[in-house]
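Per your request, structure below.
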């Protein structure tokens, strides 16, 4: 009852020995995630203690995969090292790379995205600048709080981390199959459309909540995909209805050009595809609740 991440996922953490990596590794372990190793070439052969759990540190992603059977990497390395970290994960052939790091230059993101494509897209990239993803009760790869919801039948895909958390909390009595935070940068790996297609194919997801934001045309393209390829009910929210005209706000991708990329334009496109769109996150949660 999940997409991309299940109870069987075995997770490496690139940057586990840093402050953020260490803090969130502890949180992932506490939520039941199988964190099987960290990656830091300078600390290879050591281990890090997280209460009763000792997690080994490997010199490379490939070494960690060979030793543990890991199939997911969560990346917490600083922005200047992120491109090399993702390329390393892709070259090792890991199935899923979750890039939490914020502030990666768009050129670097485009480079590692192109590298993954050239390698046949064997590695699904989520992010960068994202909270990761969680399949409640099964596994948590990233920084999403694990105790604000329960397993259930809703699939959630969102550009915004904080709105991901709010929607999970507001619908906690119904619960989620998987919640995926895809990030709001101009170039990202997994898109709304990728997640919509996966939720459509998941027999244990009954309805989908999609959260977008002003800027770009990702939501308009997702609306067209919903129209042509999604049979399950979808409700949506677009952050930025009250954004001042002409202001650049929020994520790097939240750039509005004239009437293109506005919340109103995105709402219109989604509603034309049959997606009910709330004017606030709470209104969107109420629309989702009506489906159940």
């Amino acid at each position: 009852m999940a997409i991309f991440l299940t109870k069987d996922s075995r997770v490496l953490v690139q940057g586990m020995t840093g402050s953020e990596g260490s803090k969130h590794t502890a949180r992932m372990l506490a939520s039941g995630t199988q964190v099987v190793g960290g990656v830091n070439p300078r600390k290879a052969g050591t281990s890090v203690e997280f209460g009763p759990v000792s997690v080994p540190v490997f010199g490379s992603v490939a070494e960690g995969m060979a030793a543990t059977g890991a199939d997911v990497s969560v990346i917490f390395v600083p922005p200047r090292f992120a491109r090399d970290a993702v390329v390393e994960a892709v070259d090792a052939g890991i199935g899923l790379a979750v890039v939490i790091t914020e502030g990666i230059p768009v050129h670097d993101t485009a480079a590692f995205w192109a590298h993954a494509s050239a390698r046949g897209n064997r590695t699904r990239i989520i992010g960068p600048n994202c909270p990761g993803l969680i399949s409640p009760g099964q596994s948590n790869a990233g920084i999403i709080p694990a105790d604000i919801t329960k397993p259930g039948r809703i699939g959630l895909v969102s550009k915004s981390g904080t709105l991901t958390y709010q929607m999970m909390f507001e619908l906690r009595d119904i619960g989620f199959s998987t919640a995926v935070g895809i990030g709001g940068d101009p170039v990202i790996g997994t898109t709304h459309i990728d997640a919509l297609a996966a939720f459509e194919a998941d027999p244990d997801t009954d309805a989908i909540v999609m959260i977008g934001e002003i800027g770009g045309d990702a939501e308009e393209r997702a609306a067209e995909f919903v129209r042509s390829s999604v049979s399950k009910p979808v409700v949506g929210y677009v952050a930025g209805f009250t954004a001042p005209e002409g202001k650049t706000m929020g994520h790097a991708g939240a750039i509005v050009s004239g009437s293109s990329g506005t919340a109103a334009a995105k709402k219109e496109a989604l509603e034309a595809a049959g997606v009910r769109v709330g004017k606030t996150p709470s209104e969107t949660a109420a629309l989702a609740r009506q489906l159940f």
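The chain has two domains: 10-126, 148-290.

Regards,
D.
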